[in-house]
Structures are given as structure tokens and as C-alpha cells.
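<goal> How does this chain fold?
<sample>
Here is the protein in question

***
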Amino acid sequence: MQKIEEMCKLAENYKMQGSLIKSSKEYKKILEIEPENICAMTNLADIYYILGDIESSIKNYEKIISLKPKYALILYKLGVLYFRATKFYKAISLFDRVIELEPDLYMAHYWKGISLYHLGKVRKSIDSFKKLQEKGEKCTLGYYHLAISYKTIGDFKQAVKYFEEILKEDPNIVSVNYHLGLSYLGLSEIKKALICFKKVLDKDGEHRGAMDKMYSLVNDQELLYTFGIERAKSDDNIDELVSNYHIGEAYKGFSSIDKAFKYFKKHIIKESEDK
């Protein structure tokens, strides 16, 4: 027994130092002496996962489950590995067992939802993501994939709701702003979509999707003028004189002559006052 403890300490030290191959060799030696040593099997499975050997990691976790079939944390880890191996049905069955055995392992709902999404069962994936939120855990990944799922089935209103929820915490996430823009397009809220795509390009000037959307949208000359009007009205960095002129030009651009005249008149009056 003392020898096993010493071997475990040595293996753990190797693992902590990042010497994973040496650590794995020590754990294998332990298993030669005690084939059912759960600690050694668990650490060996973890090392295989870190090294990218998913198949060997799965085999070790399965050995543990054969000995302890209700070990919820190992069932959860095994489910994630099956997901990584694209064995989605197996992953889902394991996550269902985890949810039953250990309801506090709330991320099982997340991984089940992702697995369902990859199988094309998008509405069922929404149920899983919503259950994750019902647990009271504000999981950004959960909100994101819930929003993506709603967007996928064409429920753009719900998609907008959850994308905006994420942006309350961090307004600069490129992927969220991009998909929020796409969702606004789905609702035909073009100006809001443009603002989202502009935010994307402010952070990532080479974002191909946002560039394509902006280009296709502003090719609509009337929309370009409309967007220019909104920007001119709302931009605090544009003084009133310049703002009135540009708004007038914009209205003139799509033949709203009365409105154009109104703003050109304001421009002239303001210019006279400044002189």
C-alpha cells in the first residue's frame, strides 16, 4: 500500500511539472499492481485527453464506469469525449444519466444541447439550453447557443433577445454582434443590422461576412442615405451646422425635396448665426 502511495505521488508530481509521458508511465505501473485503481485510471484518462488521444481516454473512462456505473463526474467527462469524437447519440445518453444522478452538474444540459444541435434536432437543443438557464446559472455559452438555435429555426425575435443579453456583459464580442446583425436582417430591421455589422468591422476590419453584408446593404442607395441620416442625427461628434447639411443632402439623394429643403434652411440659418 505504501509503495502505491509513493508511486501515485511520483506520478502526480510528473503531471504537475508537465511531464505527461513520465506521469502516464507511472500510472500504468500502478495499474499493473492494482488494475482497479480508480485514481490511476482517472489521471491516465485525463493525460490521454490532454495529449489528444481521445480513443485511449475514452477506454480508461469506460473502465471506471464499469466499476462505478453511477460516478456522475466520469459519466460527464465521458460524454464530452464522445461529443469530441462526434458520437452524439452516445454523448446524449450519458448526459441524460448525469442529469438524473447529479442535477447540480448543470453543464450536462449545455453539452446535451450542443449534441442535439449537431444532430439537427434544433428545437430539442433549445429545450436543453433553456433548462441550463432555469438552473439559475448565467452561462454565456448557453445564451449564445440558445440564440444561435433560435436563429437557425427562424425565430429571430428570440435570437435577438439572447444575443442582446450576452452583449450586456460584453458589448464587443465580434461573433455575437455579427449574428445579432443577421437576426435583425431576419426581422427586416436593416438599420440595426448595419450598426451591428459596423461594430464587427470596428473590431475586425477583415471580417468577410460583415464586409459582404455591409456591401450588399449599402449598395441600396436609398438605404445608404437613410443610414446616413440616422448617423448624422445621432453622432455627437458632428456639429449642428454640418449635421443639417448632410441630412439635407441625404434627403435630396432620394428625392424627398421638402425634407431636404427643411434641413438646408436650418443649415443656412445656423451658418448665418455663426457668422
The chain has four domains: 1-69, 86-136, 138-218, 220-275. The chain has 16 helices and no strands. Confidence is low (pLDDT under 50) at residues 235-257. Residues 257-274 form the longest helix (18 residues).
